[in-house]
Design a protein that fits this description.
There is one protein chain. By secondary structure, this protein is mainly alpha-helical. It folds into two domains: 55 residues, no CATH class; 44 residues. It is elongated, with a radius of gyration of 26 Å.
């Protein structure tokens, strides 16, 4: 998951550099007044999203599998804990009824 996040950040950083250069060379329009930095960030974010979607597909699928496996393990541990609690509760009830 960390690898995917770092790769996504790298794609965004690359887009930020390209957009920054394009805005200051006049290819893309500048923002109004003091909003130029925000304009560059927003444009880089909009451009990096579809690029990441296509380029990082395999890495995103790997991260998804890791997350699913982790959730499945957590569910199994939770169910194991519940069954242990049920057994302890049943033995306590049986012991109190026998007395």
């Amino acid at each position: 998951m960390l690898r995917y996040s770092l790769m996504r950040l790298g794609v965004f950083a690359g887009c930020l550099v390209v957009v920054w250069g394009a805005v200051y060379s006049g290819i893309f329009p500048r923002g109004f007044g003091d909003s130029n930095f925000l304009w560059v960030l927003l444009l880089a974010l909009v451009l990096s999203a579809p690029i990441s979607w296509v380029v990082l597909r395999r890495e995103r699928d790997r991260a998804s599998v890791q997350i699913v496996n982790k959730v499945d393990r957590m569910k199994a541990n939770l169910e194991s804990n519940r069954s242990q609690e049920d057994l302890a509760d049943d033995s306590t009830r049986a012991h109190s009824q026998a007395s």
